[in-house]
Amino acid sequence: MHFLSEGVYGLLKFLESELINPDVGFHFSDYCSIKNTRGLHEHDFYEFFITYGGSVLHQVNGVKELLQEGTLVFIRPRDRHSYEELHHTDCYIMNVAFPARLMEDLFRFLGPSPFLERLINSAAPPQIVLPVSESLILKKRFHRLAWSAAYRTGSSDVPSLFKALITEVLFRQFSKQQKPELVLPDIPVWLTELQMTMKRKENFIEGLPALHSYCDKSPEYISRSIKRHLGVTPTEWINGFRLQYASKLLRSTDAEVIEVAMDSGFDNLSYFYRLFKSKFGQTPVQYRKSFKNLILPE
Question: What residue stretches are annotated with the HTH araC/xylS-type domain (predicted)?
């Protein structure tokens, strides 16, 4: 990716002419880690991104906001933004960039529209949290389109198909725009260190006994602090680590679901199914199938 560095603040500027192939009409990127993204930047084109597999801190136009899994965000040319890990967690990001002229063509075609005006001129970038199942379907559709563009399968139709898909995303999804989630209060050092400790497999498998053994504070104080700073109970917090680990196993191995559940610290399969579907919007089997289909489009 080409960019220009500007000023003492380290702001990067990405250019449509260097990034987007005019014969295709868009640029598709899949970041498997926040560490692979660039720092604070802006660009002369539009883009949207979706978060997968975890939460992330998004700094945009001087404001820091918490994005949960499945958040779809629309970035305009004037927006300056970057990503930060949230308390040592990570996530995947799918990014789709497209030329400013596409939005200009849409304005001309549709005429004056309060919705489009809000989309372009709102102070904060529009965003919406999608159900995990819906975000995976959207990712699959863009994967297929990018695959067609890269391997020239039906490539003559790719620009038109992209315009239709991006129009659908803008009108179907962002018409349901939600307010960004506020950043939680600063976490004390001891809780951040405890969080790093509890992310180790041997500790989240053991659960509450490990939590209490690694902290010299009372169980009641720990519980209140986790609820205040993280918005969950200690059990929900630990189960979150277990579910993230389980989702990784489902994406990267062929282990049976019962093996995944046991290896992640769940000894009750029905309880595991219920928690997993509540968090990811799909059963473990459906979740695994969704990611398998993303690798080799049908």
Answer: 218-290
